[in-house]
Amino acid sequence: MFALEGVAKRYGPLEALAPLTLTIAPGERVALMGPSGGGKTTLLNLLAAAFPPDAGRLSIAGRPAEGLRPGRELARLVGIMPQGFDLVPSLAVVHNVLAGRLGEWGFARSLASLVVPRERELARTALARVGIPEKLYERTERLSGGEQQRVALARLLLQRPRAILADEPVSAVDPARAEALLALLVGIVAEEGTTLVASMHGVPLALRHFSRVVALRRGRLVFDRPSAAVTPEEIEALYALEDAGTRGVA
Amino acid sequence: MASGATAPGIRALRSRRRPPLHRRGLLTLLLVSAFGWSLTAVPWGAGLVHANGAAVIGRILGALLRPDLSAGTLRIALAATWRTFAYATAGVSLAIALAVPAGVLASGVLARRPGVRAVSATAFRAGLGGLRAIHELVWAWLFVAAIGLSPWVAVLALALPYAGILGRVLADMLDDVPAAPLRALRAAGAREWQVLLYGRLPMVRANMVGYALYRWECGIRSAAIMSFVGLGGLGYQIQLSLDDLRFREVWTFVGCLVALVVLVDLWSGAVRRRLSA
Q1: Of A52, A167, B158, B222, which is least surrounded by CB within 10 A?
Q2: What are A158-194's pLDDT values in tens digits?
Q3: Is residue A248 part of a domain?
Q4: CATH number of the structural domain spanning residue A226
């Protein structure tokens, strides 16, 4: 699904990602781990083709990333799971869910749907799958944070990308809901055969739900192996503090 | 990949450019001293003052207690109120119809390429600025000279400057919505006009409707004033009565104007509460 060959990115003097070579197969569930500022978000942004790498080659679904046009083409390949506050608050839930279809819709249909929602059954089914079927016509801003994330997930279900990228998908909800939400996300990608790449803070959560761990620290790959093979010592070393002088706040 | 056409990322990377804090303080100081200086520039002493003003003020205030409520005056007042209301409503409606497309173009949000965006935004913002630079009363004079005394004059004279104001405010609001939902829409494959329909417009809707209602209220006051040029309506009647020094009639018409503005304000307040609830 993703193939990186010596992909690197720097912001001015800061090396955000040292040359990285990595392959992620279709259907894999990869957790990106490591301390803040380690390069997780940079890597996710590169995979989303938000910006091109400074060096190296990146291909998404076998095609060079720089040749992919943003918009519909990219939306079919890669979807982004937002952190929960990326919905349009004043719209009804049904429109926020149906926004997943905008890449496929033309002008007339997009406009008409705001008056009388089109393809309502798709939206209803998706909401039922994420566990909040009764919220279809509710105003989105009235939903709780966890429910809003479920709406965002329902939108992704309609978008049907081949890979989902998530930046700390459960950092905004409490631990009990985080577990449920992650189980839901992982269950859905497993059913659909979607690739999942997510940056994760919670170590046990990541090891339980993801098949592979890619650990980054200061822009460099520390280890890359199946979740089952990761040892507690490795985790401790990954997050260990350096001496106070060289390490910033983070 | 052009800078305007990059794919939506996970997080925003660039924040808005702002002047540094100490320079803004300097600017504030400059503006405040300019205000202080302007006070000294006003010639407070001179002016043409009514010699027998106190007596006239007494008569005007005396008439306030006894407005003219005769059937004939009330009939004129009702007709004039209705006319003023109709001018304001038609004028502001036309203004909204003009302001929505012009505001969208002036915000430049539909343009993908930065160059096109700058051209569209500059051209339409300049156009809207020109419309509202001229006061509705001046528009009314111009139209009376060009068309004559037709209801169209009142409607157009109100619609043009109000379209300038509403369009400008809409453009600013569209530019200023939170970026995260828009990024998420683009990530889902939405093109810019779909981002407008599903993101920007719904996010500004409540504020924009509230502001348009407030402008409608302003439009009623403006329509009353504008009728001084001879277009009929409450302002015209007030002027006629003042010319004849019939202050009791003046208060009847002023009362109608106040009642109309208060009613519109109550209704628009109710609408705004429902929208934001």
Answers
A1: A52
A2: 999 999 998 888 877 788 888 888 888 899 899 888 9
A3: no
A4: 3.40.50.300
Strand bridging mode A163-167 / A195-199: parallel
Q: Structural domain tally of chain A?
A: 1
Mean pLDDT by groups of 10 residues along chain B of 277 residues: 48 55 82 90 74 82 86 93 94 96 92 86 94 92 89 92 96 92 89 92 92 92 84 89 90 93 90 79
Quick check: B157 and B134 in contact, CB under 8 A?
no
| Strands A55-60 and A14-24, bridge-based pairing | unpaired
Q: Is residue A226 one of the residues assigned to a domain?
A: yes
User: Tens digit of pLDDT for each residue in A69-81?
Assistant: 877 888 889 998 8
Q: Cβ separation of A102 and B185 shorter than 8 Å?
A: yes
What DSSP assignment string belongs to A177-229? HHHHHHHHHHHHHHHHT-EEEEE-S-HHHHHHH-SEEEEEETTEEEEEEEGGG
Chain B contact present for A40, CB below 8 A: no
Provide the residue range defining the domain that includes A146.
2-239
Helix, strand, coil percentages (3-state) for chain A, rounded to 5, are: 40, 25, 35
- Is the CB of A50 less than 8 angstroms away from the CB of B7? yes
In a domain, A246, yes or no: no
By three-state DSSP, how is residue A14 classified? strand
| Distance between first and last Cα of chain A | 32
Report the CATH fold assignment for B71-276: MetI-like fold (1.10.3720)
**CA separation for the pair A197, A190 (Å, rounded):** 13
Q: Are strands A29-33 and A212-217 parallel, antiparallel or unpaired?
A: parallel
Nearest in space to B229 (alpha carbons), one of B122, B161, B164, B136: B136
- Tell me, yes or no, if A66 comes closer than 8 A to chain B by beta carbon: yes
H or E segment to which residue A9 belongs: strand A2-11
Look up residue A28 and give its DSSP letter: -
The residue extents of the domains of chain B are 71-276
Per the DSSP assignment, residues forming a β-bridge with A23 are A3
First to last CA, chain B: 43
CB within 8 Å: A52 and B202: no
CA distance linking residue A168 with residue A199, whole number of Å: 5
Q: Burial, B127: exposed, middle or buried (Cβ in 10 Å; 0-12, 13-18, 19+)?
A: middle
